Amino acid sequence: MLGAIAGDIIGSYYEFHKIKTKEFELFHPKSKFTDDTVLIMAIAKSILDNEPYLDNVIDFGLRYFEVGYGGSFKKWLKSDEHLPYNSWGNGSAMRVSPIAFAFNTEEKVLEEARKSAEITYNHPEGIKGAEATALAIFIAREGASKEEIRERISKDFGYDLSRTVDEIRQSIICFLDSNSFEDCIRNCVSLGGDADTMGAIAGGIAEAYYGVPKEIEEKVYGYLSDEFLEILGRFRKNTIRS
Question: How large a percentage of the chain has pLDDT more than 70?
């Protein structure tokens, strides 16, 4: 999940200062972790401590409240019932990477991806985004080629990966069209869209395929709270291939 966090942090500044080039300062002085990292950590803690996804997403969301959540998610966090609100956005995809690294069969990865999405996303498209991202990470982790990844995601989820249509598909294409982890994140930022979330989605896949360069890994640690570093350390120790 470190790759997803790196993508979030690198993309954070460029979400609001959009650029259309791959030539930019990778870690801007105003880079920071956003809601994407917070919810990734919530999912990771749930896996590590065998706790419900819902409980930790609420807990982490409320404790790290001003980090860039959308209006609907903020209302959900502060509601009494915490029912899914029929969203079909990309929030479920950006937080799913720990699942793809923690579980060791496609069936379990897809099952847990659905569970993690359904707490907020009961629209089929929102759930599909989490499943597609998780499967892409998992099969990349298992050694699939880019063409195999493209074919599986296109076949299983009906995504046309020959063109960019929405942010989840764009994120996957940013990975497929890259030549390194860093190049993947630069592709995401250069599209001028929701750079941090696209970076988180693509970064998880790129980590599984390329690994995260040591210099980027060390840089990321400097942005994280002690709580997040503890979770990340435990997760990497217990999942080995994360």
Answer: 96
Neighbour count for residue 6 (Cβ, 10 Å): 30
How far apart (Å, rounded) are the C-alpha atoms in residues 240 and 219?
Answer: 21
User: What angle, 0 to 180 degrees and rounded to 10, lies between the N-to-C axes of helices 35-49 and 226-239?
Assistant: 50
Q: How far apart are CA 53 and CA 109, in angstroms?
A: 14
Q: How far apart are the first and last CA of the chain?
A: 6
User: What is the rounded distance in angstroms from the CA atom of residue 128 to the CA atom of residue 117?
Assistant: 9
Q: In the chain, count of helices (H) and strands (E)?
A: 14, 0
Give the C-alpha distances (Å, rounded to integers) separating 115 from 43, 137, 239.
11, 17, 20
pTM (predicted TM-score):
0.94
Beta-carbon contacts of 22 under 8 Å, excluding residues fewer than 6 positions away, are 183, 186, 187, 189, 190
Quick: pLDDT tens for 120-145.
Answer: 987 888 899 999 999 999 999 999 99
Tell the residue number behind the tokens 């998992």, with chain if given: 138
3-state secondary structure of 78: helix
